[in-house]
Write a structure and sequence with these properties.
2 domains
Length: 120
């Protein structure tokens, strides 16, 4: 069933995303003491095919690393008496220490901002 799920996602996600999905499923199986009965050869073949068929738009280009030095620069530039600036810095710190991709934590453009949905 897991390989069927993986095959159904082909073309919609990058190969690395699909590998991460499978790693998450594998971890769930381990946590719940379930038997992980996946044919490794079949799994690798599906993952290789999914990687080749992934849409270019599903792949992110390499970005420069977001470092502690960048956080320090932002900290020095923001007015911490302003609640908006404090919220911005809090967003940066949470993003840095808790998630892998800043773009998944923030709004991609001002036009797509929705105050009911996004951090304000």
């Amino acid at each position: 069933m897991c390989t069927a799920f993986l095959a159904s996602c082909t073309g919609a996600h990058s190969g690395s995303t699909l590998a991460n999905y499978m790693a998450g499923l594998h971890a769930w199986y381990i946590m719940h003491s379930c038997k992980w009965d996946i044919n490794e050869v079949e799994y690798k073949a599906i993952l290789a095919g999914a990687t080749k068929l992934a849409l270019h738009s599903s792949k992110r280009s390499r970005q420069a690393p977001f470092t502690v030095d960048i956080l320090i620069i932002f900290h020095s530039l923001l007015n911490h008496k302003d609640p908006c600036n404090t919220a911005i810095f809090a967003c940066l710190v949470v993003s840095f220490y808790c998630i892998a991709r800043l773009g998944e934590f923030t709004v991609p453009s001002i036009q797509s901002f929705n105050p009911a949905k996004h951090i304000t």
